[in-house]
Amino acid sequence: MKQLLEGSAAIAEMVKLCRVQVVSAYPITPQTHIVEQLARTISGGELQAEYVNVESEFSAASVVLGASAAGARAYTATTSQGLLLMAEVLFNMAGLRLPVVLTCANRGVSAPITIWNDHQDAMTVRDSGWLQLFAADNQEAVDLHLLAFRLAETLRLPVMVCVDGFILTHAWEPVNLPSQAAVDAFLAPSAPIALLDPARPATLGALAEPDSYMEHRNRLFEAVEGSMQTMERLQQDFERQFGRRHGPTAGYRVDDADVAVVAMGSLNGTIEEAVDSLRDDGQRVGSLKVVSFRPFPAAELRRDLGTVRRVVVLEKAVSMGSGGILSAEIRNALYELPSRPMVKSHVVGLGGRDVTVRDVREMVLSTREDAPLFFGLRQPTAVEVS
Amino acid sequence: MTDSVIEIRIHGRGGQGNVAAAELLALAAFKDGYEVQAFPAFGAERAGSPVQAFVRLAHSRIRVRSQIYQPDVVIVQDPDLARDPSVFAGIKPGGTLILNAESAPELLPRAAGHIFAVPATAIALEVLGRPMPNAVMLGAFIAATGLVRIASLAAAISERFKPEVAHSNTLAAGMGRDRIQELPPGTVDEIPHSAGLSRAAVELRETMEPGSSSRYHTSGWRTSHPVFKYERCNGCDLCAVFCPEGIISARTRTEYEANYDFCKGCGICAVECPVGDIEMVAEARP
Known about the structure:
Helices cover about 40% and strands about 20% of the residues of chain A. Chain A is α/β, with parallel strands linked by helices. The longest helix of chain A is centred in the middle third of the chain and has 18 residues, at about 140-155.
């Protein structure tokens, strides 16, 4: 049955249904509502779990690393500066193959300070070895958390569920939360692996000398790259049980399209609205949502975009000195095609800049190849000029 | 934009329950079978700052997530903001405007099909004992638009609040519904705004311009201000120490004063004063 919930509350409820055993987090806008509710759930006895208060995100990540190594189902959530402060531990968790699940309530990074949404935080740790899934709405956010725990424990890899800060975390919309029995049927009630066990003492992440480090990194690479097959299988399981499917990519009116708009996260709803309006005007436009950024769905993109003439990528992060990140990876994937579409990148929505249906229409209709990378910049004010 | 989506924009100041109003309206509409979406405008998170909240209602899935620039309905919770026509920016021709106001503001938009006023602050003070206009405004919304049932609003209120609070808020909503008055049509053509932003958003933006903090008088946020009585002051300095804005200073050993251009009326000085020499006095509104 559908309930009307704030995105954060829906996510916290799903994390509870996933029977996490250890939660450690440091509050930071716009992640706060998620961990506040989990803290209340645990202190109220509704969930048998340990909530570890810490003094920083570095410690929060370290706590869930240890908890996961000891066999607990461990969860944390953060955003922006918090995610960056976790960066060192994120690489460790991936290298140690620990099935931690993290919610990133996506927000821009300093300086200047912003509390508002973009994807720069998550994109900055894209090379860490974490799987990264981006939710387009709150139903997808909830479902991806359940899928994330199952994926993490099946693959022994950490999974980050990216949820647009404020736009989704603070939006109230109807969400279908499964029953505890349904969740238990999809996800075993406890985590399957304990690497640390006093009965079998072991060292994790010890020094790897030059004659073995590359082999370790290669195994991690193969695990992440090869995770697409497992993702596909678990998506099918999920769809069979819940009747919904979330990627790794999802097209909207794209099969016969000349132009495809590609984006991650909550932009996709607004984009679909723009697609309908452009179709009404006789334009053959469709859209493609990228749900899984890691593993990167290169084969799926070649399949879905192989026949379009032009790809318009709307992206909320940028690699300074290079350009859009998602678009670069899409170009990389499409390069193998015998006849390649043009790929135009538009950086949008940084630090919470609103993106409207009209903006999307303008980007699709503009065929100027020399259009600036950043869309819709304001003219500088007198103060800024002086 | 699909025509069947009804877009509602709520203007107010932090502390007037703007986000709660959006949530309650969405919850009531959800009970009436609508697809709904409610979200805040994500401004500075403090009492007094201009804020917006948005609600969309539809009979099919709502996909668009941008803020609302062409609202079908505008609710203005703050009487001061209601005097600034830029909060009406973009209202759809024939749209509905609902104001918290004792009397008709001078400048009202010609585009609005119906303009209503309700003395929401007065009703809230009477029923709730504090100037929280949101439930009253939602009652007025129901009377003005007929989009949501009052029983659904009451059920939404009961779901969100403890019984006593729910009871008085339901009462307040009922009074808002009953005491709404339709105003004559507006006379002002829409004031064009470069970015289509409301005054609230502009104020927020101006706050963020480089070098703006001394120009931007934040006193407009407050609903009351401290008055130093100079009767029992012992010069302990606690008012100045605890003032989060750092705008209280000593004129003499036992006479303190506040810079009212920047005082936000938080009342911390009055609470901290050990001898009760500071009184918070409600702002006189023009």
